[in-house]
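Title: Comparing notes on inverse folding

I've been comparing how different people in this forum approach sequence design from structure. To keep things fair, I'm posting one structure and asking everyone to reply with a full sequence. Here's the target:
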């Protein structure tokens, strides 16, 4: 049993900024030798991680890969755009998206990656770059009966918005279906819908919105006998703003995304989508 005290663990934590359990492991692995434990933490990319963890990581980069009917979107977060647009950072997020598309994991962080795991590699990056770097949101779309497509919006040398979309009930080899799926991905990036269809909107969200609109309408002095009709009209406006298939298409406001999909055949539908924007929940 290595000879060290709780005070030694606390001192190592203060000196390195590493987590308490990591400091305890470092001292155990190095028989209580403080300096050796510091070096051990550095080699593991853990020194300084604890101090960085409290800092906001509202920058980062996104990449999107669609290959062989599988789509993957990966976000890597950082504190500054200077780090986020660096070659090492953007290359890493690209490799992670490629890995996710290939392996289709439930937990990307646990996969082997460049001699360690994804999670360990990201921790080591944080130590090297001196920022709170973390694996962010991950989405993988696989299978289905149609087309999976994606889009990445690039700003200042790195992806800042990523989108995946699946259009079902169409032939994956149909060029028109592929074109429409890509157009919808572009639309999602710009219009930021919250749900694909009206049926996906949670009932509690609808009821809350209805209550707000009722109060708003009453406060405007509208007659009570017209209240229900006015509220329903305004609720339809809420759907048109937030539901993908009811939104006006960004490239042609005279049509909706739903109409675009209908043009692909009676069985066509938007099955699902994912949209991630750096700095947004």
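Reply #1:
Here's my take.
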């Amino acid at each position: 049993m290595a000879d060290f005290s709780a005070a030694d663990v606390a001192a190592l934590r203060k000196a390195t900024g590493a987590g308490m359990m990591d400091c305890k492991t470092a001292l155990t692995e190095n028989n209580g030798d403080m300096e050796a434990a510091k070096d051990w933490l550095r080699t593991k990319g853990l020194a300084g991680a604890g101090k960085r963890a409290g800092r906001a990581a509202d920058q980062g980069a996104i990449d999107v890969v669609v290959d062989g009917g599988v789509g993957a979107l990966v976000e890597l977060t950082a504190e500054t755009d200077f780090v986020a647009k660096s070659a090492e950072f953007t290359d890493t997020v690209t490799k992670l998206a490629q890995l996710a598309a290939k392996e289709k994991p439930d937990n990307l962080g646990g996969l082997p990656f460049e001699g360690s795991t994804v999670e360990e590699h990201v921790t080591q990056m944080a130590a090297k770059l001196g920022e709170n770097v973390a694996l962010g949101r991950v989405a993988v779309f696989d299978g289905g009966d149609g087309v999976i497509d994606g889009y990445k919006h690039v700003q200042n040398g790195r992806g800042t918005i990523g989108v995946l979309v699946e259009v079902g009930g169409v032939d994956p080899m149909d060029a028109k279906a592929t074109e429409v799926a890509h157009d919808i991905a572009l639309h999602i990036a710009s219009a930021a819908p919250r749900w694909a269809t009206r049926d996906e909107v949670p009932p509690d969200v609808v009821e809350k919105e209805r209550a707000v609109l009722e109060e708003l309408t009453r406060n405007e002095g509208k007659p009570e006998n017209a209240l229900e009709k006015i509220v329903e009209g305004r609720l339809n406006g809420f759907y048109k703003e937030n539901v993908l298939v009811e939104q006006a298409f960004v490239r042609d406001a005279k049509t909706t995304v739903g109409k675009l999909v209908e043009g692909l055949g009676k069985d066509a539908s938007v099955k699902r989508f994912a949209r991630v924007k750096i700095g947004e929940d």
